[in-house]
RNA sequence: GCCGCAGUAGUCUAGCCCGGUCUAGGAUGAGGGCCUGUCGAGCCCUUGACCCGGGUUCAAAUCCCGGCUGCGGCGCCA
């Protein structure tokens, strides 16, 4: 047996009990006649004491940092120990010896550049800070799923190898599919809409790919997209849903990841319903009043969003009702003003986290909107044909997980969040 | 892709402006020694580096040019 307890299971009440713990050698403090090993497992770091007289002493002599070991020992409650409890080793089994020196200091004494960290990513992911990020991400995803489950959504899985571009715009990665040209999906957009036409409420958490030049702390060639589509609903309905999701995610992380947040020295932004909404038109006017050179129809780019964030004084805000021309063909125009659309972006400070809209659900309208963007409806027949058979009105949104995680961790780059980021220059590890 | 900044041992960093005293300093790691309560353990010894190529100069880590790589901002992009 290699392990009977996780390190965090050990409490002073177990005093005198024989246990087996296993993990990585985080740090060794060698006092000559006595050694202390800080042993790390998924649950935390605990102290193993090795006395000169024990059998374990000889084995411990050859240990290196990050080697994996299994320790049979007796739990001792001792106020001198870091958690008030420690293990006095009887027997140590070396499971795997780590080479020294390590290419990255896991114990945190010497900080490494992001470049080194990504290159030596597995060691980086052993750092307590990165483990905290992973646990927070797990909570975020769990709260997202559970909010949607509670509202009757079901999780779907759509094809990631597709025949044609979904939205125009973004560049796709081509793949050779049994001798034919195909592409990696940039978004599950069209499939999730179709599925909402079958089961009403769907969501998907899956990778998406964009072959863009974008070289910023907010872009990845491969990212995780959290997508939702809801039939018999409009953009206002899905914004309410987003508010519920965000409130739940923040509450869940606050409750379950207190230690992780402390470790990252991060405080979550306050999120309460309703989240501030500003129309695109008002946003443009506000920017113009601050002497920003911008006009109706322009995209609101990062520098402008920074200004908006400052002026609004809100961490989280919706920009709603974008010009229809600035949105993809499936976005429904506003009945009262066809130049505008029933759309929204949710912005965290100056970073777009979510983008959504009411969708067009009438075939004629979709065909017109495709043509208006220079796209050929014939190429979208696989999608359009289903609109002949009772497609309900629907609305939905997509959210970038790595960007969302910046809000939950205080990290500065999605490359730090992604375990093995893919960008213009990185294909390994 | 553009602009700015940077690249020094396994890792992190000082030195670069004002070229020579740099035989490149420190931390951490690694090897060795001392040490039975460390908790960033301590003390002593040892080890290991100027991104690549060209140029200026008596002399280049230091100045100049080009390349590569990274970071930030922007662009492209949801």
From TrEMBL:
For the ligand (Mg(2+) 2), the binding residues are 352, 355
Q: What superkingdom heads the lineage?
A: Archaea
Against InterPro entries, the record matches this protein to: Aa-tRNA-synt_II, aa-tRNA-synth_II, aa-tRNA-synth_II/BPL/LPL, Asp-tRNA_synthase_2, Asp/Asn-tRNA-synth_IIb, NA-bd_OB-fold, NA-bd_OB_tRNA
Q: Where does Mg(2+) 3 bind?
A: 352
The record's catalysed reaction(s) read: tRNA(Asx) + L-aspartate + ATP = L-aspartyl-tRNA(Asx) + AMP + diphosphate
GO BP annotations listed: aspartyl-tRNA aminoacylation
Which portions of the sequence form the region Aspartate? 189-192
Per the UniProt record, the site (Important for tRNA non-discrimination) maps to 82
Q: What class of enzyme is it?
A: ligase
Cofactor: bound how, per the entry note? Binds 3 Mg(2+) cations per subunit. The strongest magnesium site (Mg1) is bound to the beta- and gamma-phosphates of ATP and four water molecules complete its coordination sphere.
**Which SUPFAM superfamilies does its entry note?**
Class II aaRS and biotin synthetases, Nucleic acid-binding proteins
PROSITE patterns xref list: AA_TRNA_LIGASE_II (PS50862)
| GO MF annotation: an example | aspartate-tRNA ligase activity
Q: Mainly localized where?
A: cytoplasm
EC number(s) recorded for this UniProt protein = 6.1.1.23
Q: Which family does it belong to?
A: Belongs to the class-II aminoacyl-tRNA synthetase family. Type 2 subfamily.
Functional summary from the UniProt entry: Aspartyl-tRNA synthetase with relaxed tRNA specificity since it is able to aspartylate not only its cognate tRNA(Asp) but also tRNA(Asn). Reaction proceeds in two steps: L-aspartate is first activated by ATP to form Asp-AMP and then transferred to the acceptor end of tRNA(Asp/Asn).
Assembly behavior? Homodimer.
Q: What is this protein called?
A: Aspartate--tRNA(Asp/Asn) ligase
